[in-house]
Amino acid sequence: MSRMRRYLVMGSTACLAMLSGCTSSPQGEQLTNAGRTMQGVGDARRLSKAEWNAYRADEGYLHSIAKPDTRVRLNFADPAQYRFAVARLKLAGKTPENSPYLFQALEQRQKDHLSQGLAAGSFASEDPRGLATSAERKEMHLIEAANAGETTPEPNDGAGVARSTFPGGSYYTYADANFTDASGNPLGDLKFVEEYEGGKDLPIATTGNLSLTTQGRYRVSSYKVEDSVEGFKDSYIFTDFGAPAGITSTRPVFSQLLVYAPVDTVLNDNLISVCLNRTWTQDCDYDLTGTPQAVKLPLKGQMSLTSEHLFDAAKITQFKTDTNAGTPTYDVGHLKLILTNAGGGCDVTDGNLIEARMNQFWRGATLSPDKKTFSWDLTGANAAFFDDGCRQVQNEVKLSLRIVLPVVASVGGQTYQSSVTLASPDPRFPRPDYTFKKITVTNSCLAAGTEIELAEGQVAPVESVKAGDRVRNPHKPSLTVMDTAVGTESVPMVRIRNAAGKSLLMTEMHPIQVMARGMVQARHLKTGDLVMTQAGPSKLVEVSRESYAGKVYNVKVGSDAEKLALGADQTVVYANGFVVGDGQIQAKYESIAMTQQNPNVLATLPAKWHRDYVMSAKRK
Description:
Elements lengths: L12 H4 L15 E3 L2 E5 L7 H17 L13 H13 L8 H17 L23 E8 L9 E9 L4 E12 L9 E8 L3 E8 L7 E12 L2 E12 L15 E4 L9 E5 L2 E3 L5 E2 L7 E3 L1 E6 L4 E3 L1 H13 L8 E6 L5 E3 L11 H5 L1 E3 L5 E6 L5 E3 L8 E15 L5 E9 L10 E2 L2 E5 L3 E2 L3 E3 L5 E3 L8 E4 L2 E12 L5 E6 L4 E4 L4 E4 L3 E4 L8 E4 L2 E11 L5 E6 L2 H4 L8 E4 L2 E4 L1 H13 L5 H4 L5 H9 L2
Parallel strand pairs: 11-13, 11-25, 23-24
Antiparallel strand pairs: 1-2, 2-6, 3-4, 4-7, 5-6, 5-8, 8-9, 10-15, 12-30, 14-21, 15-20, 16-22, 17-18, 17-22, 19-20, 22-23, 22-25, 26-37, 27-28, 29-30, 30-37, 31-32, 31-36, 33-34, 35-36, 38-39
Helix pairs in contact: 2-3
């Protein structure tokens, strides 16, 4: 990482020497507009000297009552917590003048907390629809990465990433990430992102120049405010790492991580394919059809210390003991599955618990005899278990594993704590310590007995079609079957019947060609639609739902060479005479269904947020 620029941030070395002179107007907004999403950099000169001092004191107070790696809702009946929230937003350039509804909502939340009689020194209780139950897909706000560059050769190379995700998205989300030393002295810019009609997957990255402090302990923190169908909320989370307070300790250096699972084991197509109710015969890296109520993934890997340090066996044993017993722990890392298109995510959990304990991870962790190599093995019966809230239709998911790593110096016994982050690909996450291949989950199909027309003119039941067969295609004489899937369906399927008496039973997400609308998922079909068939356009006279207990099947058609001669949405087959999409088309439209947004933000954004959005979009 290149050397960081000199920071004009109040509290840094540069500004402390000229504190009374830090009165110049704030630098340009440094705001990047991208439709719904705006990114920017905080500036301490937006606060007066008195406000800055109050902010620093309130921040210290907040960390005295909160626990690391534990997300909390701030209590606005507590003057210090309310003042901290307002100052944090003001650092990002948010004011009552340019964000009127945001500050109106903050004031209303303060009134609500006062009416509830919340006492200073406590936090607001968790909404039961939020993070309280681990079995559901839920809101997440986490510190995804926080390190001092222990896996990089550059000195003074700190990095932090926060992430927010909300099920189904939010009306508005503001989230930031800040890198300081443990006393709150800024070591880099406060970075922030705000998003309207989004909020499904929002990372915020920042960096820290560790040479700006004499301390050896550091902090990455994140504040978030969010408005959604569940109402207006906020949350705060931080993590501390490095040497113990008041002690200078040499930074350890870790080797490159070796990861054995999850990996791309089939086809070498740079894709980790996880099959849920459907199993692709040619490309299914992990078959979960035997675990219908959960997403269960194997994780296995190791890393070593290359510096004169040892992994802290006593601390790791304490992690194991505490997580196994359910003792509250605050520094054991996280393992999360995030639904990037649908929003929200799931923790790895230990049965039906209120809070995930990371017990599954730590019970599979071991040290080498020389305490130089740390390994984890969550395979077989100990595979990472994510509750059924994250078992979804075909879609991309993100896996996020942050491993807290306590070490001790081999000479002197000084302790140090850092972490490494293993994450799915994301260009907005600048420096994960390890990047998984893209992970997708699969769910799609046609009922057994559906007749697929082959290239030679014969028909075959879908369950007998296999890779290598050739099927008839309306746009090309024939296409090669590249893969097939088999599974079950737990929700009622869609039955259609046309005026010619032809019938087809398919899962609700399966795409079919409609004359006026193109490819349409079966769940959106209606009586009177003109659909394409082998005999030409035909009107639907029946669209109904039907429970089905049999097997369901799907195909992927078209070799790479064959698809070069095809247009968009042309990898289709004739199923009972209807033109239906294959698994590739299905994946495309499921993703579109979950990510499609009206280009006119104001058309879908609640009116209360219109002025805030318009004013944010005008900022340069």
